[in-house]
Amino acid sequence: MPIAFTRAVSPRIVECALTHLDRQKIDPDLAASQHAAYEKALKKAGYDIIRLPELADDPDAVFVEDTALILGDNAIITKPGTASRANEIYSTAVGLTPHFKVHYLPTGTLDGGDVLRIENTLYVGQSSRTDAAGTQALESIVNPLGYWVVPVEMERCLHLKTAATFAGLDDEGVPTVVINDDWVDPGYFSGVEFLYVPDEEPFAANVVRAGERIIMAAGNPRTTALLRHCNFKVDVIDLSELQKAEAGGTCMSLLSD
């Protein structure tokens, strides 16, 4: 059975790092309740949940996606672009070591939220959190594993996966990418079909492909309907409190194959 690695919401989430959103009051208890519903949705999709060690003093600790990248039997420990998150990567490495061959990014900065995997291609957003040195370091690790890297320039949102995510294969076996083309140029991607989010649902492009299901945040009814029209199985959950921390659904888990 595949594994979803998660981490508890820190009671200090109100102090989280923000780049594109204004700071709002965050209720840690409500955020924890929404996170529990998120884990329940992952279980429904067929995943075992393993919680990484709790980091109560690290405000962004729940956003485990940024600290590692899982590729088959391998895990690459990243270097998040926010200095306050350095402590998180060691905890993630401890949690993943029993399950994967662990590699460490030697230089640069790279957030896992900037890495969109579609089959053997890793699209890597060049954002405020991920730089060219980190992208090149990732490439040196993953090329021998059979993956190739495509840098994607961006600046209008936090991570690449804020603007584009992999929804799965369509009825003809072609990868479908849910995309906000105001935030990322579709021209970077090849061999895919696009599902464009409506202008009034700019954050709807961040969906979680979990097994045969898609988990997405509530408040995006038109995008949900588009996905269901394309025969995707969609589970909608409320992530509104976590979204105040600039979160998307993908941010809160590391999913094994």
Automatic annotation (TrEMBL):
UniProtKB keywords: Hydrolase
Keyword Hydrolase found: yes
Transmembrane segments: none
Keyword Chloroplast in annotation: no
Gene3D superfamilies assigned to the protein according to its UniProt record, in alphabetical order: L-arginine/glycine Amidinotransferase, Chain A
Family named by the database record: Belongs to the DDAH family.
The name this protein goes by in its record: Dimethylargininase
